[in-house]
Amino acid sequence: MSALLKIKDEDNKRILKLQKLLGKESKIDVVREALMLLEEKIEREKKIEQWKKAAKLVLESGTSEEVMKEISEGYEFPDEY
What pLDDT is recorded for position 17? Predict the structure, then answer.
């Protein structure tokens, strides 16, 4: 079961404003969308970090096998049809 959250008045006003702007039926819909966006941001930052590591490997080692392994670890290959 979920727990109640204590939300400051100013945050509640922001949520209500976003609810109107987004056309959401409830405040929890706004919060859920915000959580999804935050999760996407975290995933994007992880991928950027992996690409930075791969680029550093290219500069330092130059071995394509090692670089491809590093790159492909964080990449989700699309399903083949």
Answer: 97
* pLDDT of 41 strictly over 90: yes
Task: Report the candidate in 66, 64, 53, 18 with the shortest Cα–Cα distance to residue 45.
Answer: 53
Of residues 73, 74, 70, 43, the one with CA closest to residue 59: 70
52 alpha-carbon distance from chain centroid: 17
The whole-angstrom separation of Cα 36 and Cα 43 is: 11
Contacts of 61 (CB under 8 A, 6+ apart): 67
Note the pTM of the prediction, 2 decimals. 0.65
